[in-house]
């Protein structure tokens, strides 16, 4: 007989009991640790959006400027799942790198603007900048969004 130790994906506890099956016939488990308060889980989900391994890449892709539909297509989940996960994590996310802004003085920033055909000739400069703006709640509140990407490292 082979014994498999199961760990709760929420609290990592090992006090797990079987808790029936789903309509698809997959075994459901229930955590009996006090921290979980009886949360149930599956070892293998039918829909990829329910698994814990998909939730962190959604956040990572959003922070690297991937759109919601792009993220949904790559991770094989629905755009609604992407939106719900981003809304859950909203209090933890920062739209701006505040640590860099506190130490960076505007005079320290150097910008060279080159035409794309001249850029291919000049080595070392291979970045791209894009800007977009929209209104927030009213036309009196315009917001700008700037994206810069370094083609050598792929960092945004």
List the helices and strands and how they pair.
Blueprint: E1 16-21, E2 27-31, E3 40-42, H1 52-63, H2 68-75, H3 79-89, H4 98-103, H5 116-121, E4 127-136, E5 138-150
Antiparallel strand pairs: 1-2, 2-3, 4-5
Helix pairs in contact: 1-2, 1-3, 2-3
Descriptive overview:
The protein has 3 domains: 1-46, no CATH class; 48-93; 98-150, no CATH class. The chain contains 5 helices and 5 strands; from the N terminus they run E-E-E-H-H-H-H-H-E-E. It has helices spanning 52-63, 68-75, 79-89, 98-103, 116-121; strands spanning 16-21, 27-31, 40-42, 127-136, 138-150. The protein has a 3-stranded antiparallel sheet, with no helix packed on it. Strands 4-5 form a two-stranded antiparallel ribbon. A hairpin with an 8-residue loop joins strand 2 (27-31) and strand 3 (40-42). The termini are far apart. The relative contact order is 0.08.
